[in-house]
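step 4 of 6: structure.
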Amino acid sequence: GAGVSQSPSNKVTEKGKDVELRCDPISGHTALYWYRQSLGQGLEFLIYFQGNSAPDKSGLPSDRFSAERTGGSVSTLTIQRTQQEDSAVYLCASSQGRAGGSPLHFGNGTRLTVT
Amino acid sequence: SQQGEEDPQALSIQEGENATMNCSYKTSINNLQWYRQNSGRGLVHLILIRSNEREKHSGRLRVTLDTSKKSSSLLITASRAADTASYFCATDLIQGAQKLVFGQGTRLTINP
């Protein structure tokens, strides 16, 4: 497809379980970003990839959160031992160049609900 | 605290009127971008304005940037019902990581 694809679109999980969220960026985009958006709020930066490396992990809320990117393409965000406060929409975006100088192309997000 | 703050938080106007949303930020930037988000969807890029630019147009959108006041505005002229969405500004800091820092957004409602 032409856009950023995220899966699943919705995920309901029980507290304490692990979840894995997937992002397929636009082909050829070297930069990939994960953001989190709580209901009615702005976007909270989580992590940024340039190629397969993550120069900036400053936004990951705790060591329960991790992310990887393979082949300079697909990225997965893993949340271990989920908590109710992890409930949010997780948005992935990609861009051709560095963040500020290039538009970000967003997926439609994964809505995570932790019960 | 957030780098960017939009004002107002919510705006409701009649179709055909102009809508103005403002964004203020705290530290020096390279660029500023505006995005739109329809309910339940991802964000869509609208305009990027660089720190050495003062104004930029795209169709019915006009963005201004005043780096001395650390503020930007987004004007939508001749609003339509389809413009109903949340609008976010995002800043690219001169110092710091390669990321866009988003504000809390303005919820715009266009009444037919």
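step 5 of 6: annotate
 - Chain B has no helices and eleven strands.
 - The longest strand of chain B covers residues 29-37.
step 6 of 6: archive
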